[in-house]
Specification:
There is one protein chain. The protein folds into 3 domains: about 100 residues, GSPII I/J protein-like (Pantoate--beta-alanine Ligase, Chain: A,domain 2, 2-Layer Sandwich), CATH 3.30.1300; about 120 residues, Ribonucleotide Reductase Protein R1, domain 1; about 70 residues, DNA polymerase, domain 1 (Orthogonal Bundle), CATH 1.10.150. The chain is α/β, with parallel strands linked by helices and about 375 residues long. Helices cover about 35% and strands about 15% of the residues.
Length: about 375
């Protein structure tokens, strides 16, 4: 017997069934994806309090590490080879409470956290910098000498408490004519990126050679601020690499970069290189076992400076850091949150939390104080 060929209505019904199955499959897949997203959001919401606890725990551990470092009598200095800075720790700390302490992937409860500590004395405090230091910074960046006076005077006018203009400087009379208008702060900088509001400070001067890699700060977006320029000049260093708005006001010669060391009077490129060579030890690398940090600013005589010059620049230098930025990367089930704190250390029993905040993503590398 032969089966009769399918009639047209039966073929149409089959097509309709297949379309229905396809539509239902798409709906089911969409529902499954939506449920996966909802489940992930629910898990993240349930992790909120634990992530916050991990962040605060990381900050507290950083406080403890910095306090313990200050108790080591054999090391009356802060340097890049010590554990707080990510170094191996010196032989003299083998019997200290810091022996065997790691700042990476610390397990706590259902999550883990990692800590990164950076001292702020490795940079110059912008709020205490004078005209000579500001001009030296522009010189190191590579700004045209003809722009020095106007930029430094405008920075000083932004920071000082009065409304009197320095020669070639800028006060609110100029800023109020811009679109949108704003006022000179006439007070210390809280965030270094405020410099981008200062007349003459372009993104190239502020960020250096990576100006195009950075978005405007939040407060700049709020006022709709736009600074012309960006990314066309070959500056390999910027103001963000040289300055910080928070520190004791002195430069730690054990942690400062060669460029920052050149901010010191009488310290040129060769002397800065000698300072780093002396503190780095035989292998020539900072932050390793054989480092030989300076124990006092007076030891700068070993870098080719005479006693008279060392005496003159001693007030700008230190071998101790007292202000630290802490970054805590907290993680639960692959979900990260980044916590930031500024710590002020006055002694082993007095390490204070000065600021504390968090972000969904890590701070842009090179941004001042990760803000």
């Amino acid at each position: 017997m032969r089966n009769p060929p399918p009639t047209a209505p039966a073929g149409v019904a089959l097509i309709i069934v297949m379309i229905c199955i396809t539509v239902l499959s798409v709906l089911a897949a969409g529902f499954a994806y939506s449920m996966k997203v909802e489940t992930k959001l629910a898990m993240n919401a349930n992790s909120e309090s634990e992530l916050n606890s991990l962040g605060r725990s990381g900050v507290e551990m950083a406080r403890w590490v910095l306090a313990q470092q200050a108790t080591i009598a054999q090391e009356p200095f802060d340097a890049l080879n010590q554990q707080w800075a990510g170094g191996p720790g010196s032989m003299m700390t083998s019997n200290s409470p810091l022996a065997g302490i790691s700042l990476d992937n610390i397990q706590l409860g259902g999550g883990k956290f990692s800590i990164k500590i950076t001292d702020l004395e490795r940079k110059v405090n912008i709020n205490v910098a004078d005209q000579v230091m500001l001009e030296q910074a522009l010189r190191l960046i590579g700004v045209d000498a003809g722009e020095f006076t106007a930029i430094t005077a405008s920075i000083l006018d932004w920071i000082d408490p009065d409304s009197r203009e320095h020669m070639n400087g800028t006060e609110s009379d100029y800023y109020s004519t811009l679109d949108p208008p704003y006022q000179a702060k006439n007070g210390p900088l809280d965030d270094l990126s405020e410099l981008l509001l200062v007349r003459g400070v372009t993104p190239d001067i502020y960020w250096g050679g990576v100006a195009t890699n950075h978005l405007p700060a939040a407060f700049q977006n709020k006022v709709g601020f736009h600074q012309p320029g960006g990314g066309v000049l070959a500056y390999d260093v910027g103001l963000v690499n040289l300055f910080t708005p928070l520190s004791s006001g002195q430069i730690n010669i054990n942690t400062a970069s060669a460029r920052v060391l050149q901010m010191l009077p009488f310290v040129d490129e060769n002397i800065a290189a000698d300072i780093i060579r002396l503190r780095a030890g035989p292998d020539g690398m900072d932050g390793t076992d054989d480092d030989t940090p300076f124990r006092s600013p007076g030891e700068l005589v070993n870098a080719g400076l005479n006693n008279q010059i060392v005496g003159q620049i001693g007030r700008y230098c230190t071998v101790r850091s007292s202000t630290f930025e802490v970054q805590v990367d907290a993680e639960i089930n692959g979900y990260h949150r980044y916590f930031y704190a500024i710590l002020g250390r006055k002694g082993p029993r007095d390490v204070q939390v000065l600021t504390y905040h968090w972000k969904f993503s890590p701070a842009v590398p090179g941004h001042a104080n990760a803000r």
